[in-house]
Amino acid sequence: MNQHTTTDSTPTEVDVLVVGAGFSGLRALQHLREKGYTVHVIEAGDDVGGTWYWNTYPGARVDIESLEYSYAFDDDLQQEWVWPERYAAQSDVLRYLRHVADRFDLRRDITFGERVTSCVFDEGDGTWLITTDTGAQWRSRFFIPAVGFLSTPYIPEIEGLADFDGPVIHSAQWPREGIDLTGKRVAIIGTGSSGVQLIPKIAEQAESLTVLQRSPMWVVPLQNTPMPLEYQTRIKSVYPELRRRELDESFAGNFLVDWEMRPSETRSALEVTPEEREAEYEFRWEAGGLSLYTSFADLIFNQEANDTLRDFLERKVRGMIKDPATADQLIPKDHPPLTKRLCCETGYYDAFNRDNVHLVNTKADPIATVTPTGVRLASGVTVDADVLVLATGFDAATGSLTRLNITGTGGRTLAEHWAAGARTHLGLMSDAFPNMFFLSGPLSPGGFFSPPLQSDYQVQVAGRIMDMVGEQGARSIEPKGESIDGWMAQVDAIYNMTLAPKASSWWSGENIPGKPKQFLYFLGGFAMYRDLCEQELAEGLQDYVVSDGAVPAGATS
Ligand code: NA7
Fold this sequence. Notes:
globular; seven-stranded mixed beta sheet
């Protein structure tokens, strides 16, 4: 292991340099430090939390139950922590991560309030040189950009945006001190998960809210409640078993509804009677959250099966919205349910029954320009506003990585290397960028598996690979080009078996103009992903190039 060597002129040396102190970066620090590596984390924010530090907009909360959307690596931690609600609000997730940082004494190895400006691989000695905006430099054997996959806000280039007289606020850049919208006329662009959470909160406070909707999403009730004490106690008594089954049996890392209430259906939606089907959908609608994903086995594969869910959801929306024309606008026509991420609502549909909320269909009448006093549509209709909210999403999966100014072998940047699309092996490593590991990265199960659990596993895999490199006295490791090609073909093959190609969203990069279209996540499920990783480790990393020393077959840490 290297020693810390801090002087004014030479970089500080550590074994592993991590960027980002969210769920994945914190776990990387905790786990790799425990293994004996020297680790340092650089975080741009003033505190831990990552996504849960930055997204302070009203209504921000998880849509996987908190008893599951939390670390599993330490049983005392999960036994002790008390979640106040089934689905934690942003402030509670942040409180939890602060607790984790303190409990495992992580802060002493984190620099806050510094932004990494360049990361360069030194081919001479196989190390990374990381520089921050203060001029501080770090040299490390391994590099983990744990920057999150929904962390670079996307601000669309709408004509006139810079001339708007009032505040323009992206959902992920909400003022930490809040903003008083009482008596204000607010316009919001964007009706994905962030917009769906924000809209009811703004509607409660603002004088008026105009929702400028380009594409409706399929939205289901979250059914959040204060945490029932008996429920929490019961789950804690079976936590290890629940955690095991989240990994082995669940698709997204959320297993509680299937575990507690009713196992997921293994049958086709077309195999059961209409009454049985309706009962299943009704049960999962009432159970809440993302549980509709597991209603039937073929909803994501078979259009006819999927149409039965569409029919159910359409009826639900029409039943909740008083004005039939508004209900019609809120029902997606451009994609089947489940082919974009379901949004979970608390008061979203009710908001459209309020007199102060107005829905504008900007697909039919697009935004022409933002003016100093509002938004003008192509038809000439104007929407007056004092505050403009952009819930317009993120340059997901790759955006934060390609902006980090990472240079690999041959002086090539990651942005250049990925100009035609992200290339990774197992979503974990890229060729030409040795000794660098992604967590919940592109082409991993990332967008489809509970981030705390996925990054936990990937940190462990990265640690095992580091051990193998160290045991061999090797200088560096990177995946072979053909391994990446094979993995990408596998990701695409599974994607093409599903109905997902019928939708465009951040999952496929299509939310960002000019970004290469590429399905960015592995849809085979976590269990299959883990089996493939384990197989590779057992076979001795044959899919990788190990420089200055070979790793023997069968070697694992
Ligand atoms: P999303 O899901 O990417 O939603 C972004 C929204 O912004 C969506 O409704 C977009 O409409 C809309 N948008 C984006 N650009 C424009 C322009 N130029 N004009 C009009 N409307 C626009 O982001 P979220 O933050 O809500 O959620 C991201 C993930 O975070 C979510 O899936 C959860 O996993 C957590 P479009 O659909 O493109 O027509």
